[in-house]
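Recall the central idea of this unit: under ordinary conditions, the amino acid sequence of a chain determines the structure it adopts. In this exercise we apply that idea directly, starting from the sequence alone.
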Amino acid sequence: MSNYAQISDIDNWPAGMSEAEKQSRLDRIEEEVERITRDVFYIQTFDDLVSGNGKARLFPPLPHRILSVIAVSIDDEPLPVGSWSFDEYSIFRTDGGKFNAGVRNVRIQGTCGWPQVPEAIKQVTVILARDENDRTLYQHFIKGSETLGDYRYDNGGPVYTGVLEADRILQRYINRRGSFL
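Accordingly, the structure predicted from this sequence is:
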């Protein structure tokens, strides 16, 4: 994969680890970042059939922000370019028309995701890889509370990876957009 960080970005690989093993570890960490954030931080193409709603604005059930829309068709009839536009969450008609109500009758093609990988996501990937190579580099914590006699300590912050530095960064990138398929 290597969408967020490269093998050369990690400076503490264990001795004797092959390039394939390093790449496999990095790929697994990148998949974990995507699972935690429920987002991908690169450009992906999409070609979806969605149900029309009889209105001028349609919110496709994409879990990622829309970057571009290449083509839109309703009931297998292509809409001319200029009769629709989009923002990061929706597609809307600019010619006064509507998306005919129907079941999976609107086809939308385009790209979604992030135009470029945020530097913070690359940093998190490096932190998690370095931590996996040497567990003494970063502070770790677990979710929950601890009681010692009359003293109670609550860890109220979200725990995504258990690595404090990585979790603080990841918290800002959690995709809270729902996806209804």
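Residues 102 and 171 are 38 Å apart (CA to CA).
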